[in-house]
Amino acid sequence: MSLTTLKPLLDDARKRGYAVGAFNVVNLETIRGVIKAAETLSSPVILQLAEVHLPYAPLEYMAPIMIEAAHMADVPVAVHFDHGTSFESISCAIKNGFSSIMFDGASYPLEDNIRLTKEIVKLGHSFGVTVEAELGQVGGAEDGNKSVDHHLTDVAEAITFTNSTLVDALAVSIGNLHGQYIEEPTLRFDRLKALKESTEIPLVLHGGSGISPMDFRTCIKNGIGKINVGTALQLSSSEKIKTYCDANSRPAYFSIMDFAIEGTYETVKEHMQIFMSDGKA
C-alpha cells in the first residue's frame, strides 16, 4: 500500500478507535522487524527516525532504506522524522523524502513555539508533508514522576497553538516520559480528556515504552491517535542478543542480526495488538 503521510493514518485511527504505532528505527534490522510485524498483523505503521539518533543512524543513509521499505510494504507506512529541533534538520528530512516530520519547540516560550512551528508547517505543507508539533514538555523517565505537573500541556495554550499553527498532530504531555520508566507512570487522563474535547487535532503520546496496556487504551479512548515506542524495541533486541552471545563462545554476526529483527518484531507486534491497529490496514 506504499508510502503515505500521517493524515490518512490518523484520520482512520480516529474514525475506527485505534492508534497507529510510531516505532523508532536505527538500522536495517529494526526496519525489517517493524515492517514484518505490520504485515503479519495487517496494521498501518509509522517508521520513525529521531534527530537524537542521527550520530548512530545518519539521515542520508537511513532515509532511502526507510522509504524503500515503505514502498515495498503491503500495508500503509508513513516515514516520520521525530523531534526535529532546527529548520536545517527538518529541511534535510523533507529533502530526503520523509513524508512526515515533527518540530519540537516545546522548550521555547509559547509565542516562539507558535512562530517557529508556523514556519515549519508552511515548509512541510508546501511539499505535501504532514507536521507534528509538541506543546508541554515530555521529560526523561530517569527523572521519575517528580515535577511532571509543571510540564503538562495547558488546555488554553493548546487551543491557541493549534488554531495559530495549523499543525496536523500535537504531541502532548500528560505525565508520559521518554525512555525506560523507573517507576510506574501516573498519566493525567483528566488533562488528556480536556485536550481532546477542546481541540480538533489528533493527539500524540510520546514515551510509550513501559505504559500499561490498560493505560494505552484509555489514552486511545481519549484522543491519542499516534503512540511513539522506541526504548522497548532496543531492550527486547538487546536481551535476545545478550542471551545468544552468553550461550555461544563465538557468536555469528548474522545470527545477531536475526535476533535484532526478532526482538523488534515481537515487541512491535505486541504493541500493535494493544493499540488495536491489527487488521486495520
Number of domains: 1
> What is the fold named in CATH at topology level?
TIM Barrel
CATH first level: Alpha Beta
Q: Into which percent range does the helicity of residues fall? A: 40-55%
Average pLDDT, all residues? 91
The tally of beta strands, per DSSP, is 9
Structure description:
- The protein has 281 residues and is of the alpha/beta class.
- It has a single domain (3-275), classed as Aldolase class I (TIM Barrel).
- It has 10 helices and 9 strands.
- The chain has helices spanning 6-16, 28-41, 59-72, 87-95, 110-126, 155-165, 189-198, 213-221, 231-247, 253-275; strands at 3-4, 20-24, 45-50, 77-84, 100-103, 130-135, 169-172, 203-205, 224-229.
- An 8-stranded parallel barrel has the order 2-3-4-5-6-7-8-9, surrounded by 9 helices.
- Helix 2 (28-41) runs parallel beside helix 3 (59-72) and helix 6 (155-165) packs parallel to helix 7 (189-198).
- The chain is globular and about 60 Å long.
- 49% of the residues are buried.
